[in-house]
User: Which sequence fits this backbone?
């Protein structure tokens, strides 16, 4: 008997075999991770389960409905990872912000890049998991952290949006599938070589590009792309918090 199918072909004497929706989601996500979302079709999923496509339509209205459920599943995976690192465990507000950023990026990096694009699209429509209690709790926690730094109101909401979009940006930038190997040391070596090459090419007539590229290349082995990306965001928030403490008005 195939996983996710209850009852053999003789079960119920002609009645359709019952399908476990969670097994359907797991199989569809597996296809997406191996081949991308274009490979996920109702016919393909049904064939791998050994059932008819009509059997799937009893649980999912169409492919779009199946993709929404996949996105929701990834969202739950992200929230579960975040719950493993509650904010109370962090020493200060900056570590707590780092703990808000790292888990979702690590989850997305572990999936096909199409999953990142799917989740980003779903976060922009009200019918998605973007308004689930888990996501709203995360927003509340992040707003609380920003508020402790003096960042409140509309500006805080804008920072929450920026941080959320930065998660997708970092996932795309740090994914090994962008030509970097899974091994972190080898990946950093290639990044260092790339930027050193840029620095060498920019030596004549482009001193600023050469200087910055050389600095990036030299620091590539010191931290991962993800670490550097998160620290850039933290630095931006820290800078704004310092401005607020100095009495600077909100940016327009």
Assistant:
């Amino acid at each position: 008997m195939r996983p996710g199918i209850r009852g053999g072909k003789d079960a119920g004497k002609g009645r359709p075999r019952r399908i476990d929706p969670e097994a359907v989601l797991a199989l569809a996500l597996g296809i997406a991770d191996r081949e991308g979302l274009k490979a996920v079709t109702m016919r393909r999923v049904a064939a791998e389960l050994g059932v008819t496509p009509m059997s799937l339509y009893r649980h999912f209205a169409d492919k779009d409905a199946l993709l929404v459920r996949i996105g929701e599943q990834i969202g739950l995976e992200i929230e579960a990872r975040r719950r493993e690192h509650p904010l109370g465990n962090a020493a200060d507000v900056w570590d707590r912000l780092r703990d808000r950023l790292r888990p979702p990026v690590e989850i997305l990096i572990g999936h096909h890049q199409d999953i990142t694009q799917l989740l980003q699209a779903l976060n922009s429509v009200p019918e998605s998991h973007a308004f689930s209690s888990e996501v709203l709790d995360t927003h509340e926690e992040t707003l609380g952290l920003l508020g402790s730094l003096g960042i409140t109101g509309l500006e805080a909401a804008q920072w929450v949006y920026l941080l959320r979009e930065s998660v997708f940006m970092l996932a795309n930038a740090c994914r090994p599938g962008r030509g970097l190997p899974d091994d972190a040391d080898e990946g950093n070596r290639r990044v260092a070589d790339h930027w050193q090459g840029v620095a060498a090419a920019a030596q004549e007539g482009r001193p600023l590009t050469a200087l910055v590229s050389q600095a990036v290349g030299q620091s590539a082995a010191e931290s991962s792309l993800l670490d550097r990306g998160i620290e850039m965001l933290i630095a931006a928030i820290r800078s704004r918090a310092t401005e607020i403490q100095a009495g600077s008005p909100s940016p327009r």
In short: The first helix runs from residue 21 to 35. The chain has two domains: 5-60, 65-178+222-245. Confidence is low (pLDDT under 50) at residues 9-13.
